[in-house]
Amino acid sequence: MAEHLEPVRIPVPGGKIIEELAGRASTGHNNYSVARMSAPAGWDEPAQVPVFDEVTYVIAGEILVHTGGDTETVAAGQAILTRAGERVRYEAGPEGADYLAVCVPAFSEEGANRA
């Protein structure tokens, strides 16, 4: 039977809002997570080497994705895939960003391996 999902808000510093629709915090799923993010201009987070693959789809604004020595700008309507074991750092563009993140397996704070 289909199940209507209610987002669970996950508190984070820096003014970013995370609303998890499916995953460890909201539905108890460990094999994947889906979350909507809203990050203000100037937001960034520490580098991480996650144990999960992550697909990031930008709805509005843009996200800068720093991997190795490269920086990719992901604009509204675009998506990017980062792989487990890859060092990555996310940063909101000058107008902030609204985006979806899908992680396989599910996101966990421990699994992010933040620096």
UniProtKB/TrEMBL annotation:
Matching entries from InterPro entries are given as: RmlC-like_jellyroll, RmlC_Cupin_sf
Say which domain of life the source belongs to.
Answer: Bacteria
Q: What is this protein called?
A: Cupin
The organism named in the record is: Ornithinimicrobium faecis
